[in-house]
Amino acid sequence: MAHESEPHTLDAEAVRTWSSLALAALGRAREDIDAINVYPVADSDTGTNLYLTAEAADRALAGACRAAGSAPRATDSVTEDTASPLSLAEAVRAYAHGALIGARGNSGTILAQLLRGVADVLGSAPGDRAPGPLLARALERAAEEAYRAVAHPVEGTMLTVAGAAARAAGTAEKAAAGVAEVAHAAYEGARTALAETPGQLAALGRAGVVDAGGCGLVAVLGALWQALSGREPDARAVPGRLVPVPGGGPACAEDEGGPAYEVVYLLEAPEAAVDTLREALDGLGDSLVVVGGDGLWNVHVHVDDPGAAVEAGVVAGRPHRIRITHFGDERRRAVAPRAQRAVVAVVPGEGLAALCGEAGATTVLARPGEPPAVAELVDAIHRAHAREVALLPGSADLRAAASAAAEKARADGVRVAVIPTRSAVQGLAALAVHDPDASFDEDVVAMTAAAGATRYGELAVAERQSFTSAGICQAGDVLGLIDGDVAVIGSGLPETAEAVLRRMLGSGGELVTLVLGPEVPDTLAGRLEAYVQHGHLAVDTVTYRGGRYSAPLLIGVE
Questions:
Q1: Which of 71, 182, 305, 501 is the most exposed place for a label (fewest CB within 10 A)?
Q2: 304-326: per-residue pLDDT in tens?
Q3: Whether 92 contacts 15, CB under 8 Å
């Protein structure tokens, strides 16, 4: 961070501080919020979903700051106290956009819309600082937008807490309060409303808890107040540590017979098509929340027919980053005892994810240009629900994130070892020798050795002219990479693949693994298998389909 924002000033630096503090607060409260999650579905993930959404927002804001550079704006004097890479409008819009892209679950989707409402108002602020009245109006817009995004709003939820915060902020505005005072009023209003949620929603009253999503929102508003005032919220009021409702029992994962699946996806579509989509999805299930605007939307719904929910998105526009979760699996995981050991693998393709899943691994999908964040890896480790976890990052670029995720999981009592896999084919080799009956140390050593003994290659298509270790390539050339470096530049996929195989097998090998991308014909696999059999009689070949998001061809030689 370039400098600390002066307290009582709502500028770009204050937004960055708010983001960091909100992420830290949700991280501390995540498990406590998960534990009291009983509505709308008792799947113990509200705290995790809010944290992952905030992490995506924080990452987008940090990326926008890096892209803008650290030079001061022309309107600022060149001092450490005033230099900031972003304007207030740019900061809040980047923050809200990151939340929209990374929103998880019902609560995360609503949080994304709340941040969008704030950005809609603060993004039009004259100058680079917002006064108290503008913050109050931003919080009011946020609550309005969130209520509109939910098909059937229910009181006693996160929406109720947001509405109370907005009303309290509006009262402070009338008293000509500054930004810190407005933020404090919103925080206190949210806390008061949160304490009343068990009396408004029967499921909360029976469980003796306050609303989990509302807890997360209180944490976010507390972080806003802290960023603007420099004062830390009372630890006794941290969400998740609130005293249960008198006479209430413990939080319970009760199944009230709702839809079986949660469906979430990003959607590129015009607003008119989204209005029609809302009607279609509302007839398929419940907990419908559609947030966003300007052609990009995040859709969340609970249904019994996930295919129909996705198909409705296809009719409306272009759905992508589709996630389908079966609630039965989540409920069983919440109450099931931990397994002794599990494997978590990051894989660059849906076919590879299915393959590793069949072998017993918990998978994290890495899409092109969208590597999984630390929070996603931590979430996968927890989903594995084991005392010991072998984490396969599948890329040298993910080693740092994998190590950070392992440290966070260890703090939660999970023993984690990062297997240094630099490619998906090394991950397959490691998974093939995984032995849950061996000691953890022996298993880690065997998996590490198998990965290290596997040379890896990849074929990609050059997007532009560039200098490589094999010479200058042009846009459209096929690049053959061996152990991460460009070794061959060719004009066709088959010829380049054979050249890569020739080099990789030059130092010997016993098994060749081919992973074909979604657009690659089966004839290529046949040609490469014949090539191996013709020149290397003792070498076996296995072929898999990488599925959507995978590279044109991955090659492993063991």
A1: 71
A2: 888 889 999 999 999 888 888 77
A3: yes
